[in-house]
Amino acid sequence: xxxxxxxxxxxxxxxxxxxxxxxxxxxxxxxxxxxxxxxxxxxxxxxxxxxxxxxxxxxxxxxxxxxxxxxxxxxxxxxxxxxxxxxxxxxxxxxxxxxxxxxxxxxxxxxxxxxxxxxxxxxxxxxxxxxxxxxxxxxxxxxxxxxxxxxxxxxxxxxxxxxxxxxxxxxxxxxxxxxxxxxxxxxxxxxxxxxxxxxxxxxxxxxxxxxxxxxxxxxxxxxxxxxxxxxxxxxxxxxxxxxxxxxxxxxxxxxxxxxxxxxxxxxxxxxxxxxxxxxxxxxxxxxxxxxxxxxxxxxxxxxxxxxxxxxxxxxxxxxxxxxxxxxxxxxxxxxxxxxxxxxxxxxxxxxxxxxxxxxxxxxxxxxxxxxxxxxxxxxxxxxxxxxxxxxxxxxxxxxxxxxxxxxxxxxxxxxxxxxxxxxxxxxxxxxxxxxxxxxxxxxxxxxxxxxxxxxxxxxxxxxxxxxxxxxxxxxxxxxxxxxxxxxxxxxxxxxxxxxxxxxxxxxxxxxxxxxxxxxxxxxxxxxxxxxxxxxxxxxxxxxxxxxxxxxxxxxxxxxxxxxxxxxxxxxxxxxxxxxxxxxxxxxxxxxxxxxxxxxxxxxxxxxxxxxxxxxxxxxxxxxxxxxxxxxxxxxxxxxxxxxxxxxxxxxxxxxxxxxxxxxxxxxxxxxxxxxxxxxxxxxxxxxxxxxxxxxxxxxxxxxxxxxxxxxxxxxxxxxxxxxxxxxxxxxxxxxxxxxxxxxxxxxxxxxxxxxxxxxxxxxxxxxxxxxxxxxxxxxxxxxxxxxxxxxxxxxxxxxxxxxxxxxxxxxxxxxxxxxxxxxxxxxxxxxxxxxxxxx
Length: 839
Fold this sequence. Notes:
The chain is mainly beta and 839 residues long.
């Protein structure tokens, strides 16, 4: 006995699934649909089913047959297939696809339970026990895929697979897999295999294992990190980057790895990352390396290099603790670390390490900031450390308002705009060569002090358009040491002695400045160019500092001539104090030039602005109280962007006086000798050109960071962007400086010009091949600069990377072929020759 429902009736089931659903509530009656009585072993949750073609209900056998895009849902289980058969007597559901006229299988079953999905050819499943048997299945487990001829599922959602394959390739017929006769998938734990070996393009390889374990946990999982093996001609056979990964908890992890070489070199590394949502995030790493290289001149000798490097990044969420914030960016270590241990070209080209740690606490009327800074030059080996630095600042307030009742509203009088603030700046620093930084007695080189600053400021308009800003500054410095100078007639040298003890000095300065803006507009009758606007911002200022008499010392020679004049604070941490009376008149001119034009590409807002000169400034000052050489150097700078492709930045310094053979100014003006305002003594030009600016616009946010959704992440902290077919950047840098070795009548005859050209870019040869490069030319040394060539090949589930430095001190090459997925990241073929192997 059976009931056949046509396709149009099946839509009623999808609208009101309770008509044909089994549930624990057997008292409900519905005259519009058949009801099947519950058996003793009946399931206790609703079953919702429908089909596109038709459904047949066999009341005698208690079965339902679904034809054409059938769909069955039970709790967290969903089954889709061309044909599904359900038995409510045995609680077993069976599904299979059908073959079309060409013999191709269509409508194959897709079984989904929670996050797991199985693509099969045929399957059966028990709703009550949740056991099942699946034939020719493909399912995703973490980053991998499991193919199995026969799969059985137990009540704990574990799977037992016969003739199984594990791969990270998402194709129905994978490029590679690890084949095993038996596999067991333990839910959210691991995948265990029996004897297995690697197959590539259905060809077995000799790479075999007696058993295998593959992680299948969601979230963090601790475990061993297998090392990379190989050989270095200089360091010997090696095992690199092996160690242990420790997933400490949901907020922090740590990887401890190391390298070991047969000729005695080794390295230890710790790398930790942490992230607490809405609180803070960051990372910490510590590297220590001991390298033993053969001496270049005598191979029987060994050069020993011990290096370390520390990195720490910490960023606090602004909403975590309003009013206080901690941030850190630390990069510190030995100067030779990048030279001998870095594989990143950017690290190698960096010759300055900089660090900062800052803590800020804000109140309504004040702010406290503390921290440390560090900078280090890897070429000069000089290290500068400022620790600690503490600054306390009281926000600007109006003193007149304090005496008003209940802090009433501020009036419009000139004194209502007077503001006072206070800053205390405490510093302690040390400068040393890196090799002597931790030697005994280094603390004697420390400089420290506190500077107090109290500015009185106000601002108001004159004649409506001129903004006038007078101010009075008082500052005072406190030192725990001072410096005395002594002249030695025997050596004709000046020596400096450090005197311990508290001392203080005060200084005052009065200043005022006035600024305004001038606008000029020139309109055109052209249909293309509408107008050109010029903005001129002149600023004129004056300042006065009184002469300092107290604390000024003078040094005389044997014949009584004055050799030097100084204060005991000149070598202090805040720099020398001004001893002479000074009255300055200063000026600054800032220019901006832009054009309005009509764009044919934009019909909605056709009028656009184009900057012709984004900024051109010239400034100088005149000391009218000085007895000679009253004019300062004249400084000029300009920047612009041409057609949004060509960035130009120019800087120049002009001296109005003649210079001697040491580069010092003489009291003879350029105007007196040559009738000109001045002589350019230093100049620089930076030009950057991007032939495809759309590449930068597409993949850069407003803050300049990459848009990662357009980029494919690969190993070694590299990105590959397939959406940009090509990109080419050209930059030119030139520095123009005088040479004081060749002169005639105080006129510079020879200038040193240092200029270089840099080129970088990449190109997609095909959809799977990408080549990147970086190079340049130093015109002064007549040599190519650091050059790299990078080749990337997308092999679907594999990838190949080739990095080459073809010449120079860092000549090297590396070839890596590896699986993309991190689960099988140790399945790789590396080949590498570093620069020290090719010497």
